[in-house]
Amino acid sequence: MKTLPSMLPVILLSTFSIQANASACGSFSIADMNWNSASLIAHVDQFILNNGYQCDAELVPGDSVPTGLSMIEKGRPDVAPELWTNGIKEALDKGIANKRLRYAGNSLVNGGEEGFWLPAYLVDQYPEMATIEGVIQHAELFQHPESDTTYAFYGCPAGWTCQITSEHLFNALELETHGFEMIDPGSGAGLAGTIAKAYERNLPWFGYYWSPTPVLGKYEMVKVDFGSGTDVEEYRNCTTQPDCESPKVTMYPPSPVSTITTEAFSQAEPQAFEYFSKRGFTNQEMSILLAWMEDNQADEETAMYHFLEQYPHIWKAWVSDEVASKVESAL
Asked: What Gene3D superfamilies is this protein classified in (predicted)?
């Protein structure tokens, strides 16, 4: 009986050690993807985890498909903060089924968004133009830059995947029958430039675009309702396929944009995994940040500080008060 009290300090010390190890944050890698929104998210994650959770998170170069495949085959990097999963869905699903990967949460909570858009001031003036029927009703407003007999619809640049979908939906909506001609803007910058020019002159504009982007952070746009709802099977099996001969009308389904981790990471770093499950941006929030980066020619690290300093109401919702205090002290 006398041995029990003498063993208590050892038991308590062991229990404390186990609890400390369970709550400690270790070393891991985060993919710094080669596009602005993903790289910004990676920098935000690194700063919050290293300063708020005392992790040792390292940024490593990444790209969409290669990063996903590397995580499945090699278990590295540990985290992909913004992965557009449609393009690699089959491999990701297999990786999750084989317990190599795990979905942590949605980096873009709305998903990537595509559609046919109008300037908000146009819909304010003609509320019916929020629908495709209203756009067709006012087709004559959309002056073609090179023709007096046709109306302008700005499509996706040639060679991009969205050229296929936007052309199929243009045809399914029979816009050519109503006098519209699809204009190839030549490049992403060219397409953005047509929106900026219309906004500066308060002119009508109608065409394809996507979010989050700096353009939709600068200019208020309204997505046109086709009145069809979203037919995911039609979109996958026909709208996205180059050889689809009879496309039907469907709204673009959201593109899932997720944070993916390795299964090993989710087990080893429960606090960091919980953070990733709560962290997410709306398209509008991200579009505004991307517009700020473009206007200020800021890199991702500069934009990270701007975000953490100017938008605490967003990121504090992801973490505890204690963690938020540590992050603010580090800033």
From this structure: Glycine betaine-binding periplasmic protein, domain 2, Periplasmic binding protein-like II
Residue 16 lies in a domain: no
Q: Which of 239, 268, 291 is where one domain is finished?
A: 239
Question: The domain that contains 293 carries what CATH number?
Answer: 3.40.190.10
Beta partners for residue 296, in sequence order: none
* More confident of the two residues 80 and 22: 80
Give 275-324 pLDDT, tens digit per residue: 999 999 999 999 999 999 999 999 999 999 999 999 999 999 999 999 99
For residue 77, what are the domain limits? Answer: 25-111+256-330
CA distance 192 to 194: 5
36 and 86 assigned to the same domain: yes
Same domain, 285 and 314: yes
Convert the pLDDT of each residue in 29-67 to its tens digit: 999 998 899 999 999 999 999 999 999 999 999 988 899
* Contact status, residue 233 vs residue 158, Cβ threshold 8 Å: no
